[in-house]
TrEMBL record:
Occurrences of domain Fe2OG dioxygenase (ranges): 160-265
Reaction equations catalysed: gibberellin A1 + 2-oxoglutarate + O2 = gibberellin A8 + succinate + CO2
UniProt keyword annotations, A-Z: Dioxygenase, Iron, Metal-binding, Oxidoreductase, Vitamin C
GO process terms (BP): coumarin biosynthetic process; gibberellin catabolic process; response to light stimulus; response to molecule of fungal origin
EC number(s) recorded for this UniProt protein: 1.14.11.13
EC supergroup of this enzyme: oxidoreductase
Gene3D superfamilies for this protein: B-lactam Antibiotic, Isopenicillin N Synthase, Chain
Native source organism of the sequence: Solanum lycopersicum
Residues making up the signal peptide according to the UniProt record: none
Transmembrane helix recorded as keyword: no
GO terms for MF: gibberellin 2-beta-dioxygenase activity; L-ascorbic acid binding; metal ion binding
Name this polypeptide is given: gibberellin 2beta-dioxygenase
Length: 314
């Protein structure tokens, strides 16, 4: 069976769970459907070895367990490194501490007591999730009927790709009274092409399929990665795939850990929808732009701002 909807408690949304070992054309159809409907889905049998994931998780737990003064030596996250509560450069805050790393090259030596071990864990993990992201992008192109099936994955395979790895730690907030201080990472869309998210078994991710409506996503199954469409992929598919708002809440008793790979183009890459996805009835929704232009627009705004509509075709 390719897709399973697992039983869940009422408040949680079960994202489609797509088995990547299923029959290829079926799998690509399911991925396209999920990307059009929700912009989010989970994948199992994804090919990233368990030991590679565990090595990265162990390093991540190790890092966040260090005393604050040691973690601060890897900061501030300007633009890469350790950050605590401050998000971006425009005054956004959340109950989160994080490590933001560029995937090539990885240079910060102050993160671990054993930088070589840390670098090996990151490189192994990034290689695994990048390959997974490329495979999913190729399945998407196939499902969309684009003959050059590497047209999307090539952005991530580019040696100058601006992809990032973000390790997030949401410590428990014992004094949670209402929702006001329970936001770990405020609502936003991901600017890049595709996000591959791995989290521990503590819930927290919520998605907003429509305005003002929030649905918690269960952290199960533990063998899955959660995948979501970013703004650049929404533009590359002429709005067919949805870059959906999401946020992370903190838990009152357990710490949440997540690791997000944001697959991005090179700075000089042009984001243009393949001609096969356009027709006289569906002309370009967005003007061509470079990733550099889009990234600058993203970083000059607040976390929750909508940015893609500034790039709409006239
Ligand atoms: C959201 C997705 C990624 O985590 C991120 C974030 C970035 C940051 O934390 O520095 C941004 C945010 C994210 C979008 C708007 C800008 C930039 C914080 C912020 C206020 C690393 C990214 O690429 O964009």
């Amino acid at each position: 069976m390719v897709v399973a909807h697992q039983p869940s408690n009422r408040q949680e949304k079960e994202l489609p769970i797509i088995d990547l070992m299923g029959e290829r054309s079926q799998v690509s159809k399911l991925i396209v459907k999920a990307s059009e409907n929700l912009g989010f889905f989970k994948v199992i049998n994804h090919g990233v070895p368990q030991h590679v994931i565990k090595a990265m998780e162990d390093e991540s737990y190790d890092f966040f367990s260090k005393p604050t003064s040691q973690k601060q030596r890897a900061g501030p996250a300007n633009p890469y490194g350790y950050g605590c509560k401050n998000i971006g450069f425009n005054g956004d805050h959340g109950e989160v501490e994080y490590l933001l790393l560029h995937t090539n090259p990885l240079s910060n030596n102050t993160i671990s007591n054993d930088p070589t071990l840390f670098r090996c864990a990151v490189n192994g993990y990034v290689e695994g999730v990048r390959e997974l992201a490329c495979e999913i992008l190729e399945l998407m192109a196939e499902g969309l009927g684009v003959p050059r099936t590497s047209v999307l994955s090539n952005f991530l395979r580019d040696s100058h790709s601006d992809s990032l790895l973000r390790l997030n730690h949401y410590p428990p907030l014992v004094q949670l009274v209402n929702n006001t201080n329970s936001i770990g990472f405020g609502e936003h869309t991901d600017p890049q092409i595709l996000t591959i998210l791995r989290s521990n078994d503590v819930p927290g991710l919520q998605i907003s399929p429509r305005d003002g409506f929030w649905v918690p996503v269960s952290p199960h199954p533990s063998t899955a990665f959660c995948v979501n469409v970013g703004d650049a992929l929404q533009a590359l598919t002429n709005g067919r795939f949805l870059s959906v708002r999401h946020r992370a809440m903190v838990n009152s008793c357990r710490r949440r850990m997540s690791m997000a790979y944001f697959g991005a183009p090179a700075l000089n890459a042009r984001i243009v929808c393949p001609p096969e996805l356009l027709s006289p009835h569906e002309p370009n929704l967005y003007r061509p732009f470079t990733w550099d232009e889009y990234k600058k627009a993203t970083y000059s705004r607040k976390l929750g701002d909508t940015r893609l509509h500034f790039f709409r075709a006239q």
